[in-house]
Amino acid sequence: MKTSFTKVGLIVAVVAMTTGFTSCKKKGCTDPTATNYDDKAKKDDGSCIASVTPGASEEVVTGFVTSNTTWTADKVWILDQKVIVSSGVTLTINPGTIIKGKEGADALASALVIAKGGKINAVGTAAQPIIFTSILDNIQIGQITGTNLTTTDKGKWGGLIILGNAKISASNGDVVSQIEGIPASEAYGSYGGSDDADNSGKLKFVSIRHGGALIGAGNEINGLTLGGVGNGTEISDIEIVANLDDGVEFFGGTVNVTNVICAYGGDDGLDIDQNYAGTITNFIVIEDAESDKGLEIDGTEGTTYVTGLFTLTNGSVYSKDGFGRPADLKDKAQGTLNDVKFSGFTNNKLKVRASYQIACGAVKTDACSNMIASTPKLKVLTSEHGGVEVYTTSNDGATPPVTCPVWSSDQSAATAVGISAAAAGVSNSIFSWGWVQANNKF
């Protein structure tokens, strides 16, 4: 009996030691009611996602948000037409939350608008991104992607619009403007001012899908619209997929954006207007036959705020099937492209616009003159492309192109300074958390 007791005690001790060792090493979600419950986990790592019966928990929101509000991940939030976060109010969106926009156009188009003075605090994680998508998307709580919508499903709802008080260069010398598609009678559509450090909140690990509904005459909503947004705002790890209009459009402002991917859009990937003067770092644009240009960059529109310079650095812009154009530098564009790899386009030349008076007379200020000036305002540095193509309004797309001696001289000068150089591009792994990776669409 003594020998038998000793053996049993030894077995119990070994089991206890093994169990203790496992509990120290095996982490995961230990909540059996969660959608990502790990039955092998012994120590909770805080990753649990609430489990809700599909379709059982939804909340429809519409109109103005007038007090601090939190949208939680235990329900799907349905945008019914415009939802506007008022000045002085913060909307918090928890990690893993899914927001779906209803269908509709013009006044009925669904969109989330953060008005000047309002804030959004939408901070997801790689494991629990915040997802904006269409009500037609069959994605459920706890999922990264649905199964029924593809890259061709565009314009199914609106998009996300953030408006701030930073400087813009609008037409007619205006320092404040009205965001496109929202009637001038609606005060919440105003953006621009004098505070470059303005803070509109935080946006991190956010995926915006299948948007771009018509919001007004000739205006589709961008996936993410940033109007006069200041550099006190934090934006990183953003994914825009299958938007009918641009992926991200900047109307002036100084906000810096890190880690952004715009894929399979119906227009441009990144669009810069009204002398945006922030920095975009680590970006990917994926074009296909339905897309237009990877980058479309405009500069000043009016006489105010003419000194700001954009910076785009560390990027990959490519076409999946040869269609589209890599970039269009136009309308007095001024800033720097640095370490950007353009590839896959049948025509891989960067378009650079030049403007002249009637009959190719006096040269007017435009992207080309900014690029070839003795002290250039527009620079293409250490970027890989197929050369530059100077164009005017009259020869854009014409066959053969309409040319003149001044244009030919500008083409030669732009070619001399817009030299292609090997660029590394950006690793796809930065965006392994989103729709593009989950659907193998890199």
Feature tags:
disordered N terminus, 31 strands, 11% helix, mainly beta, 23-stranded parallel beta sheet, 442 residues, single chain
Structure notes:
The protein has a domain at 59-293. The model is unreliable at 1-23 and 50-56 (pLDDT under 50). Strand 15 and strand 16 (219-220) form a beta hairpin. It is 11% helix and 34% strand. The chain is mainly beta. The chain has helices at 2-25, 367-372, 405-417, 435-438, and strands at 27-28, 43-44, 58-65, 69-71, 76-85, 90-93, 98-101, 111-114, 119-123, 130-134, 160-163, 177-178, 190-191, 201-209, 214-216, 219-220, 224-227, 234-241, 248-251, 257-263, 270-273, 279-287, 293-297, 310-319, 325-329, 335-343, 350-353, 355-356, 363-364, 378-381, 388-391. The strands form five sheets. It has a 23-stranded parallel β-sheet that branches. It has a two-stranded parallel ribbon with strand order 1-2. Strands 12-13 form a two-stranded antiparallel ribbon. The radius of gyration is 25 Å and the shape is globular. The chain has four helices and 31 strands.
